[in-house]
What does this fold into?
Amino acid sequence: MGKNKFENLDKLKILPNTGGNGQKIYIETYGCQMNVVDSEVVAAIMTDNGFSISENLEDANIILVNTCSIRENAEQKVRQRLNDYKKYKKKDKGILIGVIGCMAERLKQKLLEEEKLVDMVIGPDAYRDLPKLVEEAGSGQQAINVLLSREETYADINPVRLGKNNVTAFVSIMRGCDQMCSYCVVPFTRGRERSRDPYTIIREVNDLIAKGYKEVTLLGQNVNSYIWENKENNRKISFASLLEMVAKTSPDLRVRYSTSHPKDMTDDVLHTMAKYDNICKNIHLPVQSGNNRVLENMRRGYTREWYMDRIRAIKKILPGCGLSSDFITGFCDETEEEHKDTLSLMKWAGFDFAFMFKYSERPNTYAERKLKDNIPDETKSRRLTKIIELQNKLSLESNKKDIGKTFEVLVEGVSRKSDERLFGRNSQNKVVVFDRGNIEIGDYVNVKITECTSATLKGIVV
Ligand code: 5AD
Ligand code: SF4
It folds into this structure.
């Protein structure tokens, strides 16, 4: 690459306008934050090619559903939604329906056979091909591209933000996943792990700052294994260095990231977090189970003790840091005792927040091929209820400790319950609600906490 790191990228970005003829696209997004950015990448590719984005399904000529395969019920939701689309197709036979994202990648051609109304199937690494595929589908051909790539990071594409607020944005820093946890479909749907050129990340962040955004969340399946090798000087940029580069763009920009893998969560990242006030003090560290045998079967690459050591390091280097996690109940062979190990770990760590799921067997994963999905659904549900109850208690305890404290809050929007109230988040990622006054969305305000529930903090602006 020449002197100007972005020279080639600018050339790439001005894609030839293949003439979408102003056709309107409606994009519906399911699944994780990564899918949210991917929809924004798709919106950028399509608008660069003469299409426009519609917020209204009724007005659209093309419907794209960005899908998730993580659990069986995520796929069911999409199938139901496809059923809803039938009425639009009936009204106007010219409407094109595309399934994009993880389900497209997992099911490939089968999706075109099973869901007759689907015209296009496009995997997560094939979005640049969308304008061409729309053209093909428009002329009555089956349009499919589910090739996975070892290089594609959409680094040159500046996502068109589809979010409702202009305050917070997601920035993708890598794609794919090499972890191969035994239960997980992601390595199959999103392919091999690859990191995005850090200079393009910084350029995107600077562009967001120029547009008035106040917070970015750096996204990857396992951000701790981010690595970029600069071929010119053989310098390697780790996640900790990238985090520092982003934090330095502006002291007024909040920086978050997700998701971390306990196996790769190193102290250098924690020290970088401690060094910069604008890196939010919150870590999402999915543990999945508190039992070593289950962790081994899940092929997570760490033990309970290792995880506890990482939590201790976080509490020491970053006192007061928000902590959240993910849990799966009823994984293959999980005994009652092993489930209790998860409960005891939760209590020990005192998580502020958690995402909790029943194990859902996914086709072609190691667990599906080699282990037995032998925990009855009632048992999975009972254990799930148990951990949800415990987490609610832990969240409430954690929130109660915040009463009387004052936090800096970035205002994100109007409270769902009342127009007279606004909400935002503190550095620890807790939702804080307060009276509107003459505060604007996007402002930083200091809020003194006066009351709480297990889900939110409430307070007064000081
Ligand atoms: N069944 C249930 N939960 C799963 N997750 C991933 N795969 C599965 C599965 N097969 C959960 C994990 C992960 C989160 C994103 O989804 O907890 O961290
Ligand atoms: Fe995101 Fe995983 Fe769902 Fe794909 S399968 S959308 S990576 S959560």
Summary: Residues 1-17 have pLDDT under 50 and may be disordered. The two ends are 51 Å apart (CA to CA).
